[in-house]
Queue: 4 jobs
Job 1
Amino acid sequence: ICDKNPTVVSKILGEIEQFINYPDEWIRLVTLEILYKISIYRPNDLLDLLDPIKERLWDKDSSVRSLSVKILGTLINSTHLDLSEIGSDFITKLNDVEWKVKLLTSKKIVKILTENPSKIKETDALIKNVVDNFREENEEIREFAGKIFKLLGFSSIIPKEEFFELIQNLLKDNNWRVRETIIDIIGEVSSKYSSEIKDLIPQLINLLG
């Protein structure tokens, strides 16, 4: 398709909605691939299809779920929508049963935090899901969870006092992966928050001793 041509896109969108929830998985997959291409060049044209695209976050096919994440992440970055307007379903994909969907969602959120941090306003559910991913066996998922947490602090979406209160509490977590991830984050933020890090030194010495 010519995903940059407004006339062609308009004709496609007039016919394609019926296939977003089509019983055949392959049809759903191809449909979302087309919508993803459109989202890159003409994201605002997809706003009327937001609800059926969001429904595909729960598709039984992980490839369809991944495409839904990619489309919604692109719409957050490229339109007036913020994360809260997409809804909590997007954030819950951080804990999808398929690790590839988890990782893709993490990467999309890192991209949003890097390019448009004002698009993320409500953090409670996001922090909970990110901390859950600190416990993941998959190292790359833990790495991106750490990036999200760090960016939430750096962008002041989480106030500095709350950010370091979370760090202090997570250093006491029973899971070694959580503690290890937080120690890595402390190392990465130490140059910006040197005075706050000093207050953590006794706790760090106790952990590493």
Note: The chain has a mean pLDDT of 92.
Job 2
Amino acid sequence: GMTLYQITFTLNFLALFITLWLGLYLVSRSPRSSTAWLTALTLWSVGGLFVNVLLALAPPPVVPERLWWHGLLFPFWAANTINQGASAWLQGWLLGSSVVFWHHATMLMRPGKMNAWRWTRVIAGYIVGIAGVVLQYNAKIFTAVKGGDPLYINSLSAGPYYYFFAFVILVLTVLSAVNLTRSARVAATNIAKRQLQTLAIGSLVTV
């Protein structure tokens, strides 16, 4: 039978393929829709988590010195990640980015136009998302456990900013669900209403 390593690698590879394909499908069907693009960015950002795992399971070879092209291929991982062991690759892309994109998408789904208050919430979300990427580049949110096995969740530990960002991501997730619920209340058809309600529940469950 398949080993735990093979099962984990296969599942993460398939999940990455599905998120990439679904995102491309959405933007190909509605190339001029901002909501479609933001939903695709949400899916692609989720795919970044699977990239983390795949790199941890099959890391690039260790090199004696920093390579100039490392930043081009792995822009969200610290420059010394390649020499820190397999678990260090789990420190890259964060789920928070997908939540920020999804929060923006659900804001566009709400009835009415984007006013100053809605834009303030969207911009605040992006500021937090960018801050998270910068801090995680320096392993301030998640930190790899030295010698940890990437097949197990104990290979990562909470960094100094983990609880703050966990709280912010939870708030954005709840706000996204609220946006979808409000959109469902004024949906023109029962099918659209049920779809929005399902998305609202799914937003909460995934986090």
Note: Residues 4-29 form the longest helix (26 residues).
Job 3
Amino acid sequence: NSILFFDFRYNYSENRSIFFEIILDDYQIDETGIKNAIGLKLGFDNNLKVFSKNLNLSFERNFLSDNIYSHSGVHSYFLNNERPIGYQYGQACDTYDLNLSLKINHFMSIKNSYLIINRTKTSSISIWDDSNNVMDHNEFENHDFKRNTQYYDLSLHFEFKQIFLALGLSNEPIVDFMIYDNLYREDKKLYLELNYFFDFSSNFSAKLR
């Protein structure tokens, strides 16, 4: 099973660019009754000055068909260690993704992300046992899910020589465990993220929510 993809970025000025990506997982030349498995990304980014501060803005649209990243006949979305291989929010997605980053000074910045997801179904994921046999195709199917969801993440970032610190407020889902579910979280989470980088090419990372 192979996937073809093509990506492109065009810098139409020094600080502005547009980009797109096409993923072709499965395409039916003849009429077979099977849906095509296609993904498309369209977006732009812009670096500009606001009150003499650097502001990075990016926006993208993602379109993922119902059965992309799936085995034919097995309906198994590809996962590795509970994480999706492919688009992080799964199949059957139509998303709007806006990200802003404002550099206050050489060590502090403000970041904000806003995401809208429209879904036609949950991701179909099969359970596998240790011998890679399919155990159940439908355990994770949930037909009572929210089709339209919105997420945000607002945070302060501090970057020093060996320390990265982020303090933020977010309602983004934990993708590892919710890709096949509602992808919905009402409660707002205050979180603290700390990374310490050692000189011998290793680092310590911790995130508290």
Note: The longest helix spans residues 175-178.
Job 4
Amino acid sequence: ILETWSGATRTNYAADSGLSTQPFTDFRRNPTTGSLYCFAKHDGKFYRKKTGDTAWTELTRPTPVADSASEPTWLLTKDNAWLTIGCFAFDPQVPNRVWWPEGSGIWYSDLNETQTTYLLKLKTKGVEQLIGRHPRIATNGKIYIPVWDFGVFTFNPGEEGSYRLTKYPNTFLTCWAVDYCWDYPDRAVAVYADNQSVRNPLVAKTT
């Protein structure tokens, strides 16, 4: 169920446009426009609802493209539409840009309020065979990608090349969540599950 509360007033968005039976994975407001709402559904569908709209608009996807020639182009031939879109995030440095992991790739798309399509651009070199979770894009543009089994990968804006594994942890860990410090965006805290431990404890580390 997708709903919001304002005081004692509840708005059930999931009842609009026949979406009440759909499983949702994430819901975000575009910080640039303020009136654009987007959320992703379990089977890879992507929807938008602007302020004043009475229905959700499904955004369709054309054939994806690579961000640069160095990207693994084999991912462009996969049908990612059936795969789950996990959590996604708007880029605080690039207006209307949204990032998400889908299947075995990291993608971004530049949106606006008049589009009925969204073009996937592949930006995944270095993590192309890993399963990403919730991306974080810091205020300086630095990208944090938590992944299953291998911790956190980062990418600095303006650099050529691939995502790099952070120095810690250098072991077999799944990162469940990562967040950065707003005033010091090169500092981040991550929560991990130790896949080598029978008890599978959660650990936290500042990077």
Note: Confidence is low (pLDDT under 50) at residues 203-207.
